Amino acid sequence: MGLTARIRTRDGWAVSHAVVTVTDVTGTQVLRTEADTEGAVHDATPLAPGAYTVIVTAVGYAPTASSALVTASGRAEVGSVTLARQGGTELPPPGLWTVDPAHSSVGAVAQHLGISSVHGRFTDFAARIEIAPDEPAKSRVEAVIKASSIDTGNAMRDEHLKSPDFLDVLTYPEITYRSTGLTSAGSDRWTVHGELTLHGVVRPVDLDLAYLGTGADPWGGTRAAFRATADLHREDFAMNYNQILQAGIAAIGTTLKVELDIQALQGESLPQT
């Protein structure tokens, strides 16, 4: 007898301690109970046969209501109830997530000669993401990139990029990013507001972030995936070197497009492979 249900997010995570309220056809409350830490509801309170409305609420999520029919046995099996983040937005489960550099990339694209693009990436970086439990907008991101790890596939070009003309890696060995806020831009899209320290200059930089979902990995962990982009202007970070060709075209574009493909592992540990 009683009520059973499972409270889940859109991508299958348990919503712990959700509150379940049951009302009859007159709108009178007949039962109020709470899900456990696994998002499960098992309440043995007997209910009279008939039609009921089941309302599920949880902090940070939009409430939902569904119909339930109690049989002669006094049992109501609601099944799986899906809750959406408040405002329809989605993020991974709350807590700490550590970016896995072996399965992530930090890249940048610059225009070359006005007709093509040069792609580069940083191979040495670390980052942490902290998802706030009740207010996603208070989630935080911190990242540190070793400037000398720049790799464009050409050793001579890479050495020039490491020089004082560009990154000046001996004087400024690290590039850092620290978020200052988060704004919803859609059901699975966010704008991350933050400050980028590059070439000794601190500037506000927004990341356009897409949350791609979560899933289990082969090493027994849980991963979340993200994709993010941003546009940077070199002159904002005091990197003004350029060459002007005879046609008046700059050899190197002044805008850099940053492209991030990120896998983050739940918790602080990383897999060995």
Observed structural traits:
273 residues; Immunoglobulin-like; Lipocalin; eight-stranded antiparallel β-barrel; 18 strands; 53% strand
CATH architecture annotation of the largest domain: Beta Barrel
CATH superfamily of the largest domain: Lipid/polyisoprenoid-binding, YceI-like
What order do the strands of the largest sheet run in, or round the barrel if closed? 8-11-12-14-15-16-17-18
Per CATH, the class of the largest domain reads Mainly Beta
Helix content: under 10%
Task: State which percent range the strand residues make up.
Answer: over 45%
Number of strands: 18
Reported by name, the CATH topology of the largest domain is: Lipocalin
Uncertain segments: 244-251
User: How far apart, in Å, are the first and last alpha carbons?
Assistant: 49 Å
Average pLDDT, all residues:
85
Order of SSEs: EEEEEEEEEEEEEHEEEEE
Rounded to the nearest angstrom, the radius of gyration is 25 Å
Briefly note the structural class of the backbone. Answer: mainly beta
Describe it.
Residues 244-251 have low confidence and may be disordered. With 273 residues, this protein is mainly beta. Strand 14 and strand 15 (189-198) form a beta hairpin. The protein has two domains: 2-84, Immunoglobulin-like; 95-266, Lipocalin (Beta Barrel), CATH 2.40.128. The longest helix has 8 residues, at 155-162. The chain is elongated and about 80 Å long. 3% of the residues lie in helices and 53% in strands. The relative contact order is 0.14. It has an eight-stranded antiparallel barrel with strand order 8-11-12-14-15-16-17-18. It has a four-stranded antiparallel sheet with strand order 3-2-5-6, with no helix packed on it. Strands 4-1-7 form a three-stranded mixed sheet, with no helix packed on it. It has one helix spanning 155-162, and strands at residues 2-8, 19-23, 29-34, 40-43, 50-57, 64-70, 75-82, 95-99, 105-112, 116-122, 125-131, 140-146, 150-151, 174-184, 189-198, 201-216, 222-233, 252-266.
